[in-house]
């Protein structure tokens, strides 16, 4: 297990106190580093329970482990116009979304640092995941959510015992309300958007995909992108695997956004190095990715380009169609997840990967919560 975890700002090249949620100098995102490089001892991994903790040598050193059993999620083939793709069923995680991977690691970190109370902001799934793991850890959690978030997700947050604070207006208003409250009461911000431990947990998605295909990377992976945590988890996870000599390459990473809120799509196709906030965002059924811009925007763009991937925008009509098409193939997903259906169709029309290419679509959240 990697040791001696520390925090630093990549932009300032300066060490950062672990209590900060972003760099106090440049306001940029901070990262965590370990003295030991991740390794993947295959025989040891195979002998362990089939959950995200089996990759212990690649995870940050944590004194406590907060877990709800985070299983290795199924990789299920499905057909689209005669092409067979693979669905990574992340909606089968304990709280119904991939965010359990990040929440488990972040809650474990907080408990290890004797944090007893925290705040979080979310459009729903992250709040539900952190509420569940806070309950498991005995942490008091207050979650700020848009009042317009899916009622099922809001009910789920309450069910786990967290205090829910509905905030009227667009998604950024919830963050503004949280920051005001956190500053006034000096309570730690357990942010799934900012905290580097959250992405460290998402990296296990890449490790699983490699292991599920005899330690080979797929040709491409499509995922919904708002803040970019899935895509960055995949990117960093596959980089770990390449550096360890476990897989040969990083797959093409394909970010899929709602056309109504698509700042990454605009920046990528304009050749920009950073992402400007979305101008005049419109309401979208894909509420989980309706963010004005990714926190780690430069790294997200660089990850897509370095991997040879692309960014795709999907209309509301095609999001709706995706819900039905995936449902008729046995996948009950929320609208945010359904963007990958048309994303896959568009990608197959433009990518030159061959008919036998292995393409994975990440199904990020359960439809019963939408």
Which SSEs are present, and which pair or pack?
Blueprint lengths: L5 E4 L4 E2 L15 E3 L8 H6 L27 E6 L2 E7 L9 H14 L4 E5 L3 H13 L2 E7 L4 H9 L3 E5 L3 H15 L10 H17 L7 E5 L4 H15 L8 E7 L4 H8 L26 H10 L3 E5 L1 H12 L7 H16 L8 E5 L7
Parallel strand pairs: 5-12, 6-7, 7-8, 9-10, 9-12, 10-11
Antiparallel strand pairs: 1-2, 1-3, 4-5
Summarize the amount of helix as a percent range: 25-40%
Strand order of the largest sheet: 4-5-12-9-10-11
CATH hierarchy: architecture of the largest domain: 3-Layer(aba) Sandwich
- Estimated radius of gyration: 19 Å
Number of structurally distinct domains: 3
Q: What is the makeup of the main sheet?
A: 6 strands, mixed
Give the tally of β-strands: 12
β content, as a range? 15-25%
- Class derived from helix and strand content: alpha/beta
Q: So what's the overall shape?
A: globular
Q: Could you give the order of the helices and strands?
A: EEEHEEHEHEHEHHEHEHHEHHE
- What is the tally of helical segments? 11
Mean pLDDT metric:
95
Description:
- This protein has helices spanning 42-47, 99-112, 125-137, 151-159, 171-185, 196-212, 229-243, 263-270, 297-306, 316-327, 335-350; strands spanning 6-9, 14-15, 31-33, 75-80, 83-89, 117-121, 140-146, 163-167, 220-224, 252-258, 310-314, 359-363.
- It is α/β, with parallel strands linked by helices.
- It has a 6-stranded mixed beta sheet with strand order 4-5-12-9-10-11, sandwiched between helices. A 3-stranded antiparallel beta sheet has the order 2-1-3, with no helix packed on it. Strands 6-7-8 form a 3-stranded parallel beta sheet, with helices on both faces.
- α6 (196-212) packs across α7 (229-243).
- The two termini are 37 Å apart.
- The mean pLDDT is 95.
């Amino acid at each position: 297990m990697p040791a001696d975890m520390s925090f630093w700002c990549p932009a300032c090249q300066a060490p950062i106190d672990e209590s900060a949620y972003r760099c106090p100098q440049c306001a940029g995102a901070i990262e965590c580093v370990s003295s030991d490089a991740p390794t993947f001892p295959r025989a040891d991994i195979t002998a362990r329970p089939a959950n995200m903790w089996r990759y212990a040598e690649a995870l940050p050193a944590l004194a406590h482990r907060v877990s709800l059993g985070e299983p290795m999620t199924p990789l299920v083939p499905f057909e689209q116009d005669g092409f067979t793709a693979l669905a990574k069923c992340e909606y089968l995680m304990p709280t119904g979304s991939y965010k359990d991977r990040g929440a488990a690691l972040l809650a474990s970190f907080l408990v290890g640092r004797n944090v007893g109370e925290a705040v979080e902001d979310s459009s729903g799934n992250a709040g539900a995941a952190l509420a569940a793991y806070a309950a498991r850890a005995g942490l008091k959690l207050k979650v700020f959510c848009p009042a317009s978030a899916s009622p099922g997700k809001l009910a789920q947050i309450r069910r786990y015992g967290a205090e829910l604070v509905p905030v009227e207006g667009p998604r950024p208003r919830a963050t503004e309300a949280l920051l005001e409250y956190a500053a006034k009461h000096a309570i730690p911000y357990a942010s799934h958007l900012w905290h580097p431990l959250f992405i460290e947990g998402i990296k296990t998605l890449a490790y699983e995909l490699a292991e599920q295909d005899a330690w080979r990377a797929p040709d491409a992976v499509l995922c919904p992108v708002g803040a970019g945590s899935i895509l960055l988890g995949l990117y960093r996870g596959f980089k770990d695997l390449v550096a360890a000599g476990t897989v040969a390459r990083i797959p093409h990473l394909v970010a899929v956004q709602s056309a109504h809120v698509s700042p990454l799509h605009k920046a990528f196709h304009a050749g920009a190095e950073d992402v400007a906030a979305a101008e005049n965002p419109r309401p979208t059924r894909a509420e989980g990715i309706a963010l004005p811009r990714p926190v780690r925007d430069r790294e997200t763009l660089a990850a897509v380009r370095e991997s040879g991937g692309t960014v795709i925008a999907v209309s509301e009509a095609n999001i709706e169609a995706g819900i039905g098409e995936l449902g008729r193939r046995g996948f009950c997903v929320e609208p945010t997840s359904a963007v990958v259906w048309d994303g896959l169709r568009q990608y197959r029309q433009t990518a030159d990967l061959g008919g036998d290419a292995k393409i994975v679509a990440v199904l990020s959240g359960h439809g019963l919560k939408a």
